[in-house]
Amino acid sequence: MSSDNGRLKEVGDFLRARRAELSPQIVGLAAGPVTRRVPGLRREEVARLAAISTDYYRRLEQGRIAASGPVLDQLAQVLRLDDDQRAYLFELAGKPAGKPRVTQARAISPQLRRLLDQMPEAAALVLGSGMDILAWNRLAAALITDFARIPEHERNYVRVVFTDPAMRTLYPDWADVARKAVTNLHMDAARHPDDPRLTELVRELSTRDADFRDWWHGQHVTSKGQGTKRFHHPVVGDLTLDWDTLICDTAPDQHVIVLTAEPGTPSHDALRILASWNGEEVPDGDGTLAARQPLP
């Protein structure tokens, strides 16, 4: 076996080992009802998250082809590699590693995951740096949107607010919600000025949406806190919910957003209906019925 072939095999072995260490829940995928025959993510799941074809990724793991630097960088993110593991992967592949991307903790702890699942009458989601959506509970998906349908690299709260047309109906005060999201994003940008993911998000939304561009250049800032938010839900109608922000002591870039309603109010009754509802169809953004995918 030539040295080049040996390197390719080592790269494939390393990718396969790291893939086996991850679960669907860690990367925000629905686990599904079928028990997995082998631990970890499937090849097709890694490929989808990395925005490459399954066949291309399969050949990488089999040591049949070499990956480019950008593909290695994307795989390092998907597989949650730390800086040492990323450097090792690039060294194995014989590629210059360059400067690691600025990364904050994107995997939530099992305890936090359990906390989300054990709040049956509260909608809760975890936002990371740049307001990336890291995790959510069943009620948050039923209330806002099925986040599992959004590719992980696009799973960002600000992007969803500005690019999903259904959000403008879901939030009767959409302009206030969107402006607040921009001011929060400004705070994150100040904390992480070298984060290329955040820079790219601002560039993308500035190009796509005039409101975002105007509000971003307005330079208004605020931090996540608490308040009240109105919803016009396609299934249960109008709700007014209180929201609070909880900061994770062990992961300060992660914030838990919790939405609740006063017991005995119509909004509380509506949340309970959503929490117990397991129908096979849900109204789509345009009011039509769309096939429901299993919520995480």
TrEMBL record:
<dbReference type="InterPro" id="IPR010982">
    <property type="entry name" value="Lambda_DNA-bd_dom_sf"/>
</dbReference>
<dbReference type="InterPro" id="IPR001387">
    <property type="entry name" value="Cro/C1-type_HTH"/>
</dbReference>
<feature type="domain" description="HTH cro/C1-type">
    <location>
        <begin position="40"/>
        <end position="86"/>
    </location>
</feature>
<dbReference type="GO" id="GO:0003677">
    <property type="term" value="F:DNA binding"/>
</dbReference>
<dbReference type="Pfam" id="PF13560">
    <property type="entry name" value="HTH_31"/>
</dbReference>
<dbReference type="Pfam" id="PF17765">
    <property type="entry name" value="MLTR_LBD"/>
</dbReference>
<protein>
    <submittedName>
        <fullName>XRE family transcriptional regulator</fullName>
    </submittedName>
</protein>
<dbReference type="InterPro" id="IPR041413">
    <property type="entry name" value="MLTR_LBD"/>
</dbReference>
